[in-house]
């Protein structure tokens, strides 16, 4: 399969017709060293706007398909365990410090992942958590913010995060750019059913995972988790 760096760079040009919600920022501890790093490395409005546009571009493709129900997104920079949580996006200041040498890309990548949760469909709450997280990391992968520890492979297709993201990218290379947006769309108005993979690709999920692993040479891998997320958003 293609190397992880193959997707094109993220869109950075503002499209006035994308339904970008009101973007808000709250800082809970101004003295935390992660706050200075954040502002030294990214422009808050730009990075949140770009994250929203990346989700629309990769997951919804056209402006008419982009969800309009999200009124605002609040980014909270605060001391906390983990990295971030969806809906209100709570970003752990210490995580920025822990990634000092590459924190601009890490901030952008985490925010793209979390903004996906604000907009993605979840099969009326029945979508497996691994697929929810996999779609979020797939958009991050497409946007080019790939952490150094990510690599293709893993134990299960729904292991989540980058394991599922690379699998979704392989599906995209094999069945076309609309593959993941179609899977997402099929979870908009109906409960999740794994048959959606057969609807979109013509093959069952088990067969797809087998083919993927054959192509990888049966490789394992897939360690590590980038962000800790709680339940997907209710849409
Ligand atoms: Zn997540």
Can you put this structure into words, describing what you see?
- This is Plant basic secretory protein.
- This protein has 235 residues and is α/β, with parallel strands linked by helices.
- It has a single domain, classed as Neutral Protease, domain 2 (Orthogonal Bundle), CATH 1.10.390.
- Strands 1-2-4-3 form a 4-stranded mixed sheet.
- Strand 3 and strand 4 form a beta hairpin.
- Helix 5 crosses helix 6.
- The radius of gyration is 17 Å and the shape is globular.
- It binds zinc ion.
- Just give the CATH class: Mainly Alpha
Strand order of the largest sheet: 1-2-4-3
Roughly how much helix do the residues carry, as a percent range?
40-55%
Summed over residues and divided by their number, the pLDDT gives a mean of 87
Oligomer: single chain
Organism: Russula earlei
Protein name: Plant basic secretory protein
Tags for this model:
Neutral Protease, domain 2; 235 residues; binds zinc ion; alpha/beta; 9 helices
Write the layout of secondary structure elements.
Blueprint: E1 22-27, H1 33-41, H2 44-60, E2 72-78, E3 84-85, E4 89-92, H3 93-98, H4 103-119, H5 129-143, H6 161-175, H7 179-185, H8 195-201, H9 205-216
Parallel strand pairs: 1-2, 2-4
Antiparallel strand pairs: 3-4
Helix pairs in contact: 2-4, 2-5, 4-5, 5-6
The protein binds zinc ion (ZN).
Outline of the structure:
The chain has 235 residues and is α/β, with parallel strands linked by helices.
């Amino acid at each position: 399969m293609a190397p992880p760096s193959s997707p094109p760079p993220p869109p950075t040009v503002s499209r006035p017709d994308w339904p970008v919600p009101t973007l808000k920022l709250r800082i809970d501890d101004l003295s935390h060293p992660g706050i200075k790093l954040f502002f030294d490395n990214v422009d808050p409005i730009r990075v949140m706007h770009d994250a929203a546009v990346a989700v629309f571009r990769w997951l919804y493709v056209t402006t008419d398909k982009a969800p309009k129900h999200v009124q605002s997104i609040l980014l909270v920079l605060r001391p906390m365990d983990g990295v971030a949580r969806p809906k209100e996006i709570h970003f752990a200041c210490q995580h920025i410090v822990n990634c000092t040498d590459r924190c601009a890309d890490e901030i952008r990548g985490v925010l793209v992942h979390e903004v996906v949760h604000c907009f993605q469909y979840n099969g009326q709450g029945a979508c497996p958590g691994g697929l929810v997280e996999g779609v979020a990391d797939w958009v991050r992968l497409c946007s080019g913010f790939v952490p150094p520890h990510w690599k293709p492979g893993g134990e299960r297709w729904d292991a989540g995060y980058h394991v599922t993201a690379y699998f979704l990218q392989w599906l995209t290379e094999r069945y076309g750019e609309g593959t993941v947006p179609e899977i997402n769309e099929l979870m908009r108005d109906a409960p999740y059913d794994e048959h959606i993979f057969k609807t979109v690709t013509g093959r069952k999920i088990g067969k797809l995972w087998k083919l993927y692993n054959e192509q990888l040479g049966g490789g394992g891998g897939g360690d590590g988790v980038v962000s800790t997320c709680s339940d997907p958003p209710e849409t």
